[in-house]
Amino acid sequence: HLEMDSDLEWQPSQLLITLGGSDSCIEAFKARFARHAPLPRMKWREQATQRLHHVPELPVQFVPFNPLDAVASQEGEGVQLERLPDWLIRTHERPLLHIHLVDSEDPLVYKQHLKEQLARWQSHVTEIGGSWLIVHLAQNPDAKKSMKLMLRDTVFDKIRSDFGGKLHSDKCLQLKVRDDAEDAQGAQLWSVLQRRMLREMFSCLDQRVAMYNKHLKLFVESEAMLVSDTVLCNFCLLKESQALSFETVRLFQRAAEHYEEITGVLDMHLQRRGSEARAHSGQQRHEQQQQQ
User: Fold this and answer.
1) What does each C-alpha distance from 206 to 14, 47, 203, 246, 266 come to in angstroms?
2) pLDDT recorded at residue 95
3) What is this structure's pTM?
4) Which residues, at least 6 apart from 216, have a Cβ–Cβ distance to it below 8 Å?
5) Residue of 74, 72, 42, 76 lying closest to 200 (CA atoms)
């Protein structure tokens, strides 16, 4: 009887979310998030297939935001099938969402320091890829106001105006600095944040699936896979990255479909190589017989 070592048990890929802001903000947010985790179940209609998926509760792993992770997308430069860039085959390791936390309620501090920090962070996020949210931790969150009626006098108003605008104002949210089980407003704000986090992450996943499909189509339409083992391996690596992207959001059946495609392609490749080897061996025997 063999027992599997728990250290060797399979673990799904981690769903990563980066956090930016002061250390005190990050620790306070993580502590409160733990009380509301995991992210709730949801339904997601995949744009590429129009299939409706039932997404289970999602645990997440928060990691520090690192501007050095920025990569050039190179979307317009094309991709060489025999030499895929590292960022492409490791797309599944990149966070789907970036959150920046702000707790200051002083408009002067925002004007002199925070606004520039947020602009620099947003620029890095654009380079890295992924969706984003800005979360303001407030003592007394503002009542919801339309963009037309905003006086733009509080820090949160300024954040929504400067970084949300009319199109992305819902990417800027508030949370209470302190909330408890009996705090209805605090619980409602957390619920709104969790739904927004899910919406942003799956919007990003839709974009990544489209990106994968775009590049995989180049392989399928090329005859290079028939003659180049390198191209075939790159196709499998890219397909595996796509499967791992689905694993991060616990859609294991969807991931399995991609693994099955990899298996099918490899089986066909081996059968073709076997047929070529037998044909070559037969040709050699025929030539030897003629020489005799």
Assistant:
1) 18, 6, 5, 11, 27
2) 93
3) 0.84
4) 235, 238, 239, 242
5) 42
**Which residues touch 183 (CB under 8 Å, ≥6 apart)?**
176
Asked if omega into 38 is within 30° of 0 (cis), the reply is: yes
pLDDT at 256: 96
Instruction: Report yes or no: 196 and 135 within 8 Å, Cβ to Cβ.
Output: no
Tokens of 277: 């080897």
Which residue is listed with tokens 């744009």?
47
Question: How large is the angle between the packed helices 184-221 and 23-36, nearest 10 degrees?
Answer: 90
Instruction: Region of 99 please: left (phi>0), alpha (psi -120 to 50) or beta.
Output: beta
The model's pLDDT over 259-269, given as tens digits with 9 standing for 90+, comes to 999 999 888 88
- Beta-carbon contacts of residue 181 (< 8 Å; ≥ 6 apart): 187
In eight-state DSSP terms, residue 177 is: S
DSSP state of 272: H
Question: In this predicted structure, what is the pLDDT of residue 286?
Answer: 55
Q: What is the pLDDT of residues 80-108, one digit of tens each?
A: 888 888 888 889 999 999 999 999 999 99
Which residues of the chain, if any, have pLDDT below 70? 1-10, 70-78, 141-152, 179-182, 273-292
